[in-house]
Amino acid sequence: MISKEAVRELEHALGAEFVSCEPAVMDGYAYQPTHAEILGLETKWCPYRPVAVVLPHTTEEVQAVVRICNAHKLQFKALSTGWGIWNAPGSDNVVQIDLRRMDKLTIDTKNMIAVMEPYVSGAQIQAEGMKSGLNVHMVGCGCHASPLASATSLMGPGCSGITTGYSPRNVLGVEWVLPDGEILRLGVPGQGNDEWFYGDGPGPSLRGIMRGTLGACGGLGVFTKCALKLFPWPGPAQPKVEGVLMDAKVEIPGTHSSFLCFLPNLSRFADAFYKISNAEIGYFMGKHAITGALLAGCMPRAYKNLVKSETVRSILTALQNTFVIILCGRTQREYDYQHKVLKQIIADCEGFMLNIGHVPLLHSMLWWGFIRNSLPPAIFRAGGRFTTAFGGFETIDQAVFQSKIGAVIKQELIDSGDMMDDLADNSWGGLYEGSSCLAHQEELAIFDPREPKQNEGVNKYIDKAMEASTKYTITPGIGFGGGGAVPHMLGPLIYNYHHWLLQIKETLDPGNSADPSFFIAPEAEKEKYLRDYARRRPQVARLVEDILAADKKRSDVP
Amino acid sequence: MALQDYTNDMFGCSRCSLCKWIPQNQVKSWRFAKGCPSMDRYHFHAYSGSGRMIMGMSMLDGRSELGDAVAEIIYKCQLCGACQVACMAVRDDIDLGDVLLEERARCVEEGFLLPEHMEFIESMKREDNTLGMRKADRGNWAKGLDIPDINLERVEVLFHAGCRYSYDEDLMETVRNAVALLKKGGVKAGIAGRDEACCGGRAYETGYQGEMKKYADDMAGRVKASGAAMLVTPCADCYYTFKYLYPKNGISLDVEVLHITELADRLIRAGTIKPKRAVPMKVTYHDPCHLGRRGEAYRGGWSGENKLDRPIRFKQSGEKGVFEPPRNIIRSIPGIEFVEMERIREWSYCCGAGGGVLEAFPEFAGWTARERMEEVASTGAEALVTACPWCVRVFQDTIRETGSSLKVIDVTELLMRSLGGK
Amino acid sequence: MVGKKALAGIVGEENVVTDRNILDAFAVDKSYGEGTPPAFLVKPHSTEEVQAVINLAKSEGFPLIPVSSGAPRDHEDTVPACADSVIVDLSDMKKIVRLDRRNKVALIEPGVTFGELHAAAKAAGLRVLMPLLPRMNKSVLASCLEREPFTIPKYQWDTTDPLMCMELVFGSGDIYRTGSAAGPGSLEAQWETGAAQKNPLGPGQWDPLRLVQGAQGTMGIVTWGSVKLELLPREEKCFLAAAEKMDELIEFSYLIQKFKLVDVCFIMNAVDLASLRMDVVGKFPPWVLVYSISGYEYFPGERIDYIEHDIEEMAHATGVLPISGVAGVSAGDIVGAATLPCEGIYWKDRLRGDCRDIFFITTLDRVPRFLDAMAGEAKAHGFPEGSLGIYIQPIQQGRNCHLEFNLMYDGRNADEAGRVRALYETASVRCADMGAFFSRPYGAWAALAYRKDQPTVKALKMVKHMLDPKGIMNPGKLSLGTEV
Ligand SMILES: Cc1cc2nc3c(=O)[nH]c(=O)nc-3n(C[C@H](O)[C@H](O)[C@H](O)COP(=O)(O)OP(=O)(O)OC[C@H]3O[C@@H](n4cnc5c(N)ncnc54)[C@H](O)[C@@H]3O)c2cc1C
C-alpha cells in the first residue's frame, strides 16, 4: 500500500499527470508474461502489482522519486522499454519507474560513441548511427529494446556480436542514481565535464559493482544515462526499405551478401566458427536453427506441416548444423576477399553454402531483418511465445557442447508429447568480438501459453536444462538470471558469489529500497525467496531445504 | 463479438511494446520512430495497444474495474491502427484493433459514456449526421452544381459526401471540386442530397456498435435504389466504414467502393483527365489512417478456432490500404516537388482527429497534429497534402492556433488546380 | 610488527627476504614517490601460500604490497606508504598453466613475463597483446592489471582486455575466481566441456575483475589469470604516415581504426621514434603514424593487398601519404622494434638516461589541445622540445587514446631534474584541468583524478572495505586511506 502522502509527494515532484495509482494502469506493469516460465511463474500476471507507476523526465526527477520511496519505506523498480519478467515488481510495495520520458540521444561520430537515456531504442541509435557509417550492438530480443537497459542491467547477446560485441562490454560511462538517491557517474563523466568517452576508473572500475554476466535488473538503483560504443557500418546511410518485415524489399549494396552455411556435423560446425573467427571476416553471424528460428519465424504454418513429413524431416535434420553469415564489404575488394575466404572455410569444413543474394526477396527480408534486428520477434509467430534455456558465454566449443545437451533434453520432451516438435533443433547463438572465439548459445523452445500442456512441457524443459547446466559445469548465462533466490542456490557452486552480491546490495542499499527480486534476496528475505522458488520449481526443494538447514545450523552456533 | 471473444488475442500479447513504434524496419531517425499518439502523449503503458489489451484482460479477470478513469484511457485513442500494423509485422494471432473497438463497446454497454460522444450520437439519431447540423441542410453543399439527384434518376456512380464534407463550410470547396473532377472525367455520378445520411462508422468506433446497423442498412438501400455500380466517397472515414466495418458486420453494399483518389488515379492513368497546369510547390503527403492502413478491405471471414492457424490472407495488416493512388495523383501534376515523410503508408502517424478524439479531447487531437506537422516541417515541404476531411480539419485548426505557415490541401483540390479549375 | 618466523612458516625460510639492501630499495622507485622500506619480502609459490600470508596480515595488522615484475619499478604503486609492510613478490609463480591454441588463450601465473609468454605463444603461432616495448621482466598479469595500453587497438573490445579470467585472494582472505573460471566446476572440468576461461564477465551480477584491475594492488592478490592471445600473422606489411603536425593524421587514423583494417597502430613524435631507433636520432619527421596490415590463415597476401588498397584510398581522401620507411628506417623495422619486449636499456631512457611520463586517457580529436598546452608548459619551464617524447596509443578500437608525454632528461643533473619535476607537476595539473582523464592515477595523480568525483571515492572506499576489510592491501594508494 502506498500512503496518500507519498502519492502527493510523487505528484508534487513529477506533476500529477505523471503518477498513476489506477489499478488498470498499474496492471500494465503487472503483466510480464515473457520468460516468466523461466522462473516457474505464471506466464500471465506477475505475483505483484506496483503500488504506483511514475514517469520521471530527468535525472533529478528520478532522484526525487527514489528519495520519496526511501522516506516512505517503499521500494522502486525502473524499466526502460520493459519487456520480460525481469521488470516485474518483486513485492506488494513497489513503485514502478517507467523511464519512457527519458529518451535523449547524442552521437559522437568521430569517437564512435552514443550517449543515451533509457528510452532510446536500438533501432533509433542504429538509424542515426548509420548516417555516419556507424551501428550499435543490439540484443537478440529485437531492435525496439533499450541498449542502455541491456548494457547496464540485463544480459547482452545479439547476433551482430561478431562486429558489435556484447552489451556489458560496450559501456563507456554511466550515470547512476543509487538506491539512496545519490548520483554516481562512472568514468570520465564523473569529472563533471559532461564528457563521455571512457567508463573505467579513475583506478578500479566501478563497473565491477554495476553488473557482471547479468545486471542487477533494477536491484541497485536507476541508470539514467549511458555511453555505449558504436561500431562501423560499411553500408548505406539510410537503406531504402519497403515493407514492414516479411514483405521487405531493400536495395542491398553490391558489396553485401548473406549466406546460409550448412556443415555436416557439429564438430565441423565448430571448426567453421573458429576459422571464421580467426579469419576476421563477417559482419553478422548467427546460428539460427533451420526448423526453429528460421522456418517457424518465417513460415509458421507451413513449418508445422512440413515437420510432419518423414522425408522433409530427414532433409531438415541433415541441414541442422547451419548458420547465417552476412558479409558486408566496405569496398568490392573487401567483399571479394571475405567471400573467397568464406568459401574456402566452408569447403575445408566439408560443408556447403547458399548465397541468399541469389534469392532477392528472401535476401531483402533476411538482410535488413538481421541488420536492423527487426526479425527476432517473429519467433513469436509460431506459438505466441518462446522460452530459452542455458545461454552461457564462453568458447565456441562449449557452446556446441551445450547445444548437444539441449537437443537431447528437448527430444525426450518432444517424444513424450510435451513439447512442440521442432526436431529438437532450436539453438540460437553466435560469435562475439571478432577474433575472440567467444560464443553464446541458447536453446530456444516455442510454445503456446494458451495451451496448458505446452505450458507444462516448457516448464519441464527448463527444469531439465537447469539440472544439466550444473551437472555438466556449463557456465550459466541466463541461468544466473532466475531471480533473487538463484544466487543463494548457485553461489555455493561458484565461489560463493552471492556473499559478495549481498555485501554490495547491503552497502549500497541498506534500506533495501531498490527492488531486489531479480538481483539477490537480502538475508532477511532469503528464506521467503527460496521457499517461493522451491514451490514453483519443486526439483530444487531438496537443495533449498539443505541451504536453509545449513543457515540454521550456523545461526545456532553461539 | 464481444471483448471476451478476444481473450486469446489479448493473452497472446507478449508485452514486447512494438505497438508503440512504427514497424522497426522503417525506423529512419531518432525523432520519428514512434508510432502511437496516445502513448506519445500520455506515456503510461496502458495507453499503448498492448496496455489496452492488458486492461481488457485485467477487467475480464476481475483485477480492475471499468470506471471513468479507465474509460477515459480507452477513449484517448484515435483508433489509428498504427499499433496493429506494428504488432502484425510479427504476430498472426492478435487482432489488436478489434480489441480496442470491443473495449469501447463495453464502455457503452456499462454506461461509461463521454458527453461529447453522446452529443454526436444524439445528432446522428436526430439529424443523421455527426456534426449537430440539420438534416435538411445536408445537400446544401452541392447547390449550384449540376449533379444528378439519385432520388430522381438512376446513376452509374453514387457519390457519398459524408458528414464533414456536407456541413463543414471550410471544406465545401473540396467536395465541390470532387464533383467537378468527376464531371471532367466523364463519370456519371449522382448524389443523395439531403437524403444522404451518416455512414455510422463514427458511432461504431466510439462504442455504439448497434447504431451503425441502421445507417448501414439505410446506405445499402440507397445504393441499391440508385442503380449505381460504384460508390465513390471523398471521405476517408466513410470509406473505412464501407470497406471494413460493414463487411465485418456482415453488411454488403454489393458495389465497388472507391475513394475519390482511387477514381481520379484511374482517370489519370486512363488518360481521361490530364493534369497540365504546373503547380510549383514542394509538398508532402499525409496518409489518412482511415484511407491508408485502415482503409484496407476487410480480410476476415476465417472461421477457425486457433488464430495461429489462420492463413495470412486473412490478416488485417494494413499494407493493402489506399497508398498509391493519392501519390500517383501528386506525381502526375507538373511542377510539383513531392517529398515523403518518414512515417508514411501503413506506418503513417495519425493526424489526431479520429476515434472520437477530436470531439472529446481536442487538446490531444491538436497535440497529435502538431507532432505530425513537425514531421512535415522536417521535409521542408510548404504544403501538406492529404485526402481526408477530418485530417484537413484538425491540421487547419492547429495551423490557426500555432500561426504556422504550412498549407493543408486536399489532393483533389490540388488536382483540380492542375486541371484548370472547375 | 610481524616476525620472520610466521612468514617463513607459510612460504618457507628461503622465501622470506630480509636483506636490507633489497628491502630498502623498495622505499623508492623511478617516480617521485617516497615511502617506507618494507619489513620483509616474501615469495609465495601457490594460491594457498598467498592466502595464508593475507590471513596473517589480517590478523597481525601489517600491510602487504604485491609485486610481480622485476626491477626497475616505477609509478609509486609498489612503494610502501606505511611502515612494517611486507612485499609479496609473485615473480616465482611462473607457470604457464595452459596455452590453448584453438581458443587462443593462455592461463598464466603472475610471475610470467612478457619475454616468457611471447616466446611460448610464438611457438604456438600466437602473439601476446603487449604494451609498447615492455621491459623483458615485466609481468604480463601486472601489466594487464594496470590497464596498460597495447599496440593493436582493434583487439581491445573492452578495457579489461586482454585479461579474461583470474584467480585471486581478496584482502579479506577469500580465494575467488572471476569470469567463467568461477565455475561451476574445476578448471579441468570446465576444459572437459570445451571451456577455456575466456569469458571475463561475472560470475553472477558483479565483475570483480574490474574492481581489481586498476587497483594498484589495493584489493587483493592475483594468483593466475587467463589472457587472450591472437594469431601470429602469416604475413605482415608495415607502413608509416608522416606529418608536420599531429592534426594532419587524426582523420586518417580514425578511419583505419574504425574499420579495423590495421593491426599495430600508434602515433609518435620524432623524439619517441628516435628513442626506439637510436641510430637515427634527429632525422625523423615531427610526427609519424605507424601501422601494420596482417594476413592470417587464409590467403594472407590477398588480405594485405586489399587492405592496402582500401587504405590508400582513405589516405588519399584525408591527405595522407602512406610510406614504407623514413630516414632510412623501414616501417617494418619500427613495428618490429615496437612490438617486442625491450632488451637492454629501457627505451625511454635511451636518449637522455632518465624519463618521467605523464599519461592519461583522452580522445584523438582532443589530443591537439593537450599538445599545445604541453608545449606551452615545456617552454615555460625551459624544457627542450627535443627531449619531449610523445606517444599516442589509440585504445578500444580507436574510441579513445592513451596520450603519453615522455619527459626525457639527465637525472644526474640536479637542476634539470628539478625543472622536470616542476614541469611534471604543473603539466599534470594543467592537463587534468583541461579534461585529461587519469584513469590510472598513480601517486599524486590520485588527488587530481578524484578531486572532482567524490561519489566515486565514496563508492571505491565501500568496495575497498568489502574486499579488504582490514585495509591491509597496499594502503595509501588511490586516495583510499592508509589505515590498516
Ligand atoms: C523475447 C525476449 C528475447 C530476449 N532476447 C535477449 C537476447 O537475445 N539477448 C539479451 O541480452 N537479452 C535478451 N532479452 C532480454 C533483453 O535484453 C531485454 O529485454 C532488453 O535488452 C532490455 O531492454 P528493455 O528496454 O526491454 O529493458 P527492460 O525490460 O526495461 O529492463 C530489463 C531489466 O533491467 C532493469 N532496468 C531497465 N532499465 C533500467 C534502468 N534505466 N535502471 C535500472 N534498471 C533498469 C529492469 O528493471 C529490468 O529488470 C530478451 C528478452 C525478451 C523478452
E-strand count of chain B: 8
Distance between the termini of chain A: 38 Å
Q: How many helical elements of chain B?
A: 18
Judged by helices, strands and strand pairing, the structural class of chain B is: alpha/beta
Distance between the termini of chain B: 46 Å
Oligomeric form: heterotrimer
Instruction: Give the % helix of chain A.
Output: 25-40%
CATH architecture of the largest domain in chain A: 3-Layer(aba) Sandwich
- Which secondary-structure class do the elements of chain A indicate? alpha+beta
What's the CATH first level of the domain at 129-269 in chain B?
Alpha Beta
**Secondary-structure element string of chain B:** HHHHHHHEHHEHHEHEHEHEHHEHEH
| Helical segment count of chain A | 20
Explain this structure to me?
- The complex is a heterotrimer of chains A (558), B (422) and C (484).
- Chain A has 558 residues and is α+β, with helices and mostly antiparallel strands.
- Chain A has helices spanning 4-14, 23-27, 59-71, 122-130, 147-153, 161-164, 207-210, 266-279, 290-298, 300-306, 310-318, 332-348, 360-371, 380-383, 396-415, 452-471, 486-490, 497-508, 526-536, 541-556; strands spanning 19-20, 52-54, 75-79, 94-98, 105-108, 113-116, 134-136, 171-177, 183-186, 222-232, 241-242, 249-250, 256-262, 284-288, 322-328, 352-355, 385-395, 427-432, 438-447.
- In chain A, the strands form four sheets. A seven-stranded antiparallel β-sheet of chain A has the order 16-13-15-14-18-19-17, with helices on both faces.
- In chain A, strand 18 (427-432) and strand 19 (438-447) form a beta hairpin.
- Chain A is globular, with a radius of gyration of 23 Å.
- The mean pLDDT of chain A is 93.
- Chain B starts with 6 loop residues before the first helix and ends with a helix.
- The relative contact order of chain B is 0.13.
- Chain C has four domains: 4-89, 2-Layer Sandwich (Uridine Diphospho-n-acetylenolpyruvylglucosamine Reductase, domain 2); 96-231, Uridine Diphospho-n-acetylenolpyruvylglucosamine Reductase, domain 3 (2-Layer Sandwich); 235-338, Alpha-Beta Plaits (2-Layer Sandwich); 347-433, Alpha-Beta Plaits (2-Layer Sandwich), CATH 3.30.70.
- In chain C, helix 1 (4-11) packs antiparallel against helix 3 and helix 12 (367-380) runs antiparallel to helix 13 (414-433).
- Chains A and C meet through strand 9, helix 7, helix 8, helix 12 and strand 17 of A and strand 9, helix 6, helix 7, strand 10 and helix 10 of C.
- Residues 34-35, 77-84, 86-87, 99, 118, 139-141, 145-146, 149-150, 153-158, 217-218, 222-223, 518 of chain A line the site of flavin-adenine dinucleotide (FAD).
